[in-house]
Amino acid sequence: VQCLEMTTKRKLIGRLVPCRCFRGEEEVISVLDYSHCSLQQVPKEIFSFERTLEELYLDANQIEELPKQLFNCQALKKLSMPDNDLSNLPTTIASLVNLKELDISKNGIQEFPDNIKCCKGLSVVEASVNPITKLPDGFTQLLNLTQLFLNDAFLEYLPANFGRLSKLRILELRENHLKTMPKSIHRLTQLERLDLGSNEFSELPEVLEQIHNLKELWLDNNSLQSIPGSIGKLRQLRYLDLAKNRIETLDTDISGCEALEDLLLSSNMLQHLPDSIGMLKKLTTLKVDDNQLTSLPNTIGSLSLLEELDCSCNELESLPPTIGYLHSLRTFAADENFLSELPREIGNCKNVTVMSLRSNKLEFLPDEIGQMTKLRVLNLSDNRLKNLPFTFTKLKDLAALWLSDNQSKALIPLQTEAHPETKQKVLTNYMFPQQPRHDEDYQSDSDSFNPTLWEEQRQQRMTVAFDFEDKKEEEDNSGKVKLPKLHVEPSQ
């Protein structure tokens, strides 16, 4: 039964039949919800409540135009009609003088009428996913606007006096064709979130440095080649996304962003990080994967609050010993580098639960890795390891140990052997010693790695149990020490 039919029936029996289209008191209808009702036009019955209607929801229908009568509902404070087939916004919208929130996202609207300036109470405008090419000058007279969402449109520039919208706190302009920002933008003194991702900026807009209250800034997927020191003036900045650009240098003055918690520099052309990065004491996430880094600065050890570090897909031949000072680190990824060994100090990163070192040149691991007792997932596939240190027996929480990209199970049982030269106990299985990978003749030990199966296994919260008998170990004729294998058991 469609909403229209239910409402008609409800009126005939004294409004005693509940209907999801109505929320509010029976005497005064202030909210109507016609979302997902397969409507092709605005129901006419709405107009009988034009004096009291404050919120109207027409989300996800097939409405192509808005009738003039709709704009007689001058009490409207919220008009929501995303995901329809609207091609324009009528000039009669100027009648909605009490409107505070307008959602016209996911339509085919090409422009705002200039007289939208009459909706002086507008606080939130969501107009993303429309082919809007420009904003009229009248739009900059919406002086009470606090949130503006214009993602995925066709904007090439903003009005010169855009800075008049001085109450803006959130401005999202992702996926447009912007190359510059108007100088007046510095007047947006209350702006906290600015999303300029997926545009056409070739350099950081200088005017941004004057928006001192900015807390979140997206500039990912542009054409930036460098990050100037002026960005250090954003002392309130907490989140900075510069991924997918062409950045070759990061100025040392980035240390001025002292409140920064998340710094994303993935997929750029960085050859080194400035030592001053160690001054970002509040950093919890640092992503520098897919760059051209040959080393990490020693100062990285100063990031005592860092929880996630991703330096995969670089040209690292070693890690600094100071990595051992990252006591808060939980996730560490250094896949696809040229690491031949790990510093012993990595054992001090005792809170790491996930560590991925896939596709490196590791020939051995330090015994200290056994101190990382919270490890649950460890990826060592595609390296040159001959065995694993015996201290692995201390990793009781290990749920997945990857030694091959295509291994059939998250954990392959390990057995103890004596190293042929040092006679020390080591852990091994049939997958050792690892051979350098040659894709053309790469042999897996199973048909393929099944991500779905792995996820199911992970959800079973498997743990590792190293069961050793109390009796003295016995050696067989081959000289190998017989010890129980590594087993996987469900947690209790």
Automatic annotation (TrEMBL):
Listed GO biological process terms: cell-cell adhesion; establishment or maintenance of epithelial cell apical/basal polarity; neurotransmitter receptor transport postsynaptic membrane to endosome; neurotransmitter receptor transport, endosome to postsynaptic membrane; receptor clustering
Can you name the source organism?
Lates calcarifer (Barramundi)
Recorded name of the encoding gene: LRRC7
What GO CC terms are in its UniProt record?
adherens junction; basolateral plasma membrane; postsynaptic density; postsynaptic membrane
Q: What is this protein called?
A: Leucine rich repeat containing 7
Annotated Disease resistance R13L4/SHOC-2-like LRR domain residues? 230-332
Phylogenetic lineage: Eukaryota, Metazoa, Chordata, Craniata, Vertebrata
Q: Which UniProt keywords apply?
A: Leucine-rich repeat, Repeat
Residue ranges, annotated region (Disordered)? 435-454, 464-492
The terms under GO molecular function for this entry are: protein kinase binding
